[in-house]
Amino acid sequence: MRPGRRIAFDFGDVRIGVAITDSSGILASPLDFIANSADKLRSNLVDLYQEYDPIYTAIGFPLHLSGSESAKSASVTQFAVLISEITPNPIYLIDERMTTVSASRTLREAGLNSKSAKGEIDSMAATAILDSALNQERAQGAPIKRFEP
């Protein structure tokens, strides 16, 4: 794997979970979520990209259990378009089925409940998305589904 940070997002209507890797691209860690507000979203994203300079972006892509796209898939696609306007680096859509469930379980095991840890759940889900992208990168050289605007 080539060195460099990778960033991931768990897109939500209210909050967007964020995770980042270390500079070697090995360890994924959650960051604070960002608010999905029309007036601040672009500037918050620009700040993240300027601070971390990731070599690629992984975005959780919502699918039904059958594998077909969900109603929220269009919103995530629009978010990916926004990201493509901020960075020229690759964007990958990562199957996010079960990431929120997994994140909720991890936080519950750490003694937090889902009501008091909503932002943490979003960023833990982003971490799970980033871990999935990293696993695909290790196995195949890059995550599977590249987004093309």
Summarize the structure.
The protein has helices at residues 41-52, 73-86, 99-109, 118-140; strands at residues 6-10, 15-21, 28-35, 56-61, 91-95. By secondary structure, the chain is α/β, with parallel strands linked by helices. Helix 3 crosses helix 4 (118-140).
Strand content: 15-25%
Question: What is the number of helices?
Answer: 4
pLDDT under 50 segments (min length 5)? none
Rounded mean pLDDT is 87
Give the number of DSSP strands. 5
Distance linking N and C termini: 25 Å
Over all CA atoms, what is the radius of gyration?
A: 14 Å
Task: List SSEs in N-to-C order.
Answer: EEEHEHEHH
Shape: globular
Question: What is the domain tally?
Answer: 1
What level of helicity do the residues show? Answer: 40-55%
CATH topology: Nucleotidyltransferase, domain 5
CATH level 1 name? Alpha Beta
Largest sheet: 5 strands, mixed
Strand order of the largest sheet: 3-2-1-4-5
Structural class label: alpha/beta
CATH architecture: 2-Layer Sandwich
Fourth-level CATH superfamily: YqgF/RNase H-like domain
Write the layout of secondary structure elements.
Layout: E1 6-10, E2 15-21, E3 28-35, H1 41-52, E4 56-61, H2 73-86, E5 91-95, H3 99-109, H4 118-140
Parallel strand pairs: 1-4, 4-5
Antiparallel strand pairs: 1-2, 2-3
Structure, explained:
- The model has no long low-confidence stretch (mean pLDDT 87).
- This protein has a single domain (6-140), classed as YqgF/RNase H-like domain (Nucleotidyltransferase, domain 5, 2-Layer Sandwich), CATH 3.30.420.140.
- A five-stranded mixed sheet has the order 3-2-1-4-5, sandwiched between helices.
- The chain is α/β, with parallel strands linked by helices and 149 residues long.
- A hairpin with a 4-residue loop joins β1 and β2.
- It is built from four helices and five strands, in the order βββαβαβαα.
